[in-house]
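Summary of Year 1 activities. Much of the first year was spent building the evaluation harness for sequence design. The harness presents a backbone, in tokenized form, and records the residue chosen at every position. We chose the following record to illustrate the format because it has been used consistently in internal testing since the harness was completed.
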């Protein structure tokens, strides 16, 4: 069975930043936030203070993962340019999204560089209060569907049919949580695909909360969800993760298998459960038919992220500032 990791992070240099301050590497895969919180960011054997493309390919190969979608996040710090370098070096293995802080002065210059000059056809908004922009823009809460700066980005990328907008908005307790904004954006921009990370942060003890979020997306075929890191969210470390199975059954019930994308959220998630466990847990369930399983594990990510136009755009890009 072919597989694509639909949610992976590369870390050339740890540069995390969120409400806890700056993340500084300590070696041995560990790092410390400015508030003193120490985390294990990189699994043993995959790097002391980085998770390179080569390290990712090694861990992927051991679990028979063919390709990966490289996303950005405040936890690692935006790795935009390194993602571009990795895609150019391994075009058959990686595609990716870039990120930008829309509250920075030159945010549109950054957007235009990564889209027009470097050929990216996906953008990631890490807006969660717990780990993203709402944590370090705490005094200025914003919505994706009404903020004029984000609107300017949306107007720009709408010129590129099939562009992907990937969003992590945290859990329902955070004021960044806004599943209804995804529905509004999908209606406003039908030529853009939207992927919500982490299955809208489910809790198996509150299944109707997840159903309420997913119900808002049902009418819009351009909304998808990835199921990465739901083990971390459910605090599950016992394979094959029965609470996560309940969550994914609801996702299938509400959206169907063709709108679910498997992913791991490695490297961090691979420090709680092994990468191989994250890669194989669905095989131990009867949630999907064989055809549906192929969609979730491979076909959906291939169709959404690895569009021929997206692959060609980066392949044909030639950075006018920093030569490859």
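For this record, the design step produced the sequence shown next.
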């Amino acid at each position: 069975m072919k597989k694509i990791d639909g949610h992976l992070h590369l870390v050339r240099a740890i540069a995390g930043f969120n409400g806890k301050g700056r993340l500084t590497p300590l070696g041995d895969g560990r790092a410390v936030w400015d508030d003193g919180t120490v985390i294990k960011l990189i699994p043993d054997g995959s790097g002391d203070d980085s998770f390179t493309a080569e390290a990712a390919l090694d861990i992927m190969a051991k679990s028979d993962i063919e390709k990966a979608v490289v996303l950005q996040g405040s936890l690692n710090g935006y790795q935009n340019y390194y993602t571009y370098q990795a895609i150019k070096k391994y075009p058959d293995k990686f595609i990716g999204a870039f990120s930008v802080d829309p509250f920075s002065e030159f945010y549109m210059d950054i957007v235009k560089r990564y889209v027009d000059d470097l050929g990216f056809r996906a953008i990631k908004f890490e807006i969660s209060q717990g780990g993203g922009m709402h944590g370090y823009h705490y005094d200025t809460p914003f919505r994706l569907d009404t903020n004029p700066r984000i609107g300017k980005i949306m107007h720009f990328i709408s010129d590129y049919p099939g562009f992907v907008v990937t969003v992590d908005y945290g859990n329902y307790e955070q004021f960044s949580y806004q599943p209804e904004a995804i529905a509004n954006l999908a209606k406003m921009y039908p030529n853009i695909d939207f992927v919500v990370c982490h299955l809208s942060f489910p809790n198996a003890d509150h299944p109707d909360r997840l159903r309420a979020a997913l119900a808002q997306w049902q009418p819009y075929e351009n909304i998808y969800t990835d199921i990465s890191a739901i083990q971390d969210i459910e605090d599950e470390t016992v394979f094959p993760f029965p609470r996560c199975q309940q969550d994914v059954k609801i996702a299938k019930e509400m959206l169907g298998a063709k709108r679910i994308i498997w992913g791991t959220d490695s490297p961090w998630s691979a420090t709680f459960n092994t990468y191989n466990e994250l890669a194989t847990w669905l095989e131990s369930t009867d949630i999907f038919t064989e055809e549906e399983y192929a969609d979730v594990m491979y076909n959906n990510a291939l169709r959404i992220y690895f569009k021929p136009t997206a692959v060609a755009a980066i392949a044909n890009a030639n950075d006018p500032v920093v030569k490859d």
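The radius of gyration is 18 Å. Quantitative recovery figures across the full test set are reported in Table 2.
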